[in-house]
Amino acid sequence: LLTSAESAQAAYADLVSAAQNGQLPLERIDQAVRRILTAKARWGLTQFPVTQGSAPDWTMNREVAFDLGYRAITLMRNQWALIPLSIAQPRLLVIGPTDGWGLYPALQGSLQASGFTYNLVTFSGPWNGAVPERNLLQSLPTQAASYDVILIFTWEAHLNHLRYDDNFQAELVNRLLATGKPVVVVALKSPTDLLEFPQAPTFLATYGATAGQVQGIVDVLLGQTTPVGVNPLPGLP
Fold first, then answer.
1. Kind and range of the H or E element at 95?
2. Given this model, what pLDDT does residue 195 score?
3. Are 94 and 120 in contact (CB under 8 A)?
4. What number of H helices and E strands is found in the chain?
5. What is the chain's percent helix, strand, coil content, to nearest 5?
6. Residue among 226, 222, 188, 186 nearest 208 (CA)
7. pTM of the predicted model, to two decimals?
8. pLDDT tens digits, residue range 63-88?
């Protein structure tokens, strides 16, 4: 399953090269082709040329994708009743990885429109490897004293610990929790981030950062919608 035309082309080129140099045996290719033809036969796709279906309804597909992302938001913990955010605690320190999906502008606009003040601090994308801004581990807990609520977004904190032996996000969250300030943790990718800070009293999961998920988390934080997502990993602490 590939997520872009570019990655599909790269995968195709790698497969052709592997077949040509013998790294991918002909028998394995035959096995894959037979499986595909068997699946087609099961669905009656035995005529050639195959009848072309109608063009996809891209507008409907986008609407479905948006709705699925929007409804995915899961409130896994709310022990301090911090969700939705209360204007009685208006000063927010927002922390998270660099934004490539429009989360922070959407969040900032909605927060400011609701009367909150907003300060954003970002760190390098964990998808590139270990986060280098180790200085933030000291400065941000100190800075947190000037705010009412700390809102921190994480991205595969647990998986990055396993992949790169990188504990930056885990250590940062745990240090912020140790300040005693109200902390809201939002896992933008994997809910397994909770394994890195199991004592976090407020934890949400989005499972990704599509347009629907971005709007969903903004609306959940501000009480514009009630989260209906279900925890897929009930064994988490």
1. strand 91-97
2. 97
3. yes
4. 8, 6
5. 45, 15, 40
6. 188
7. 0.82
8. 999 999 999 999 999 999 999 999 99
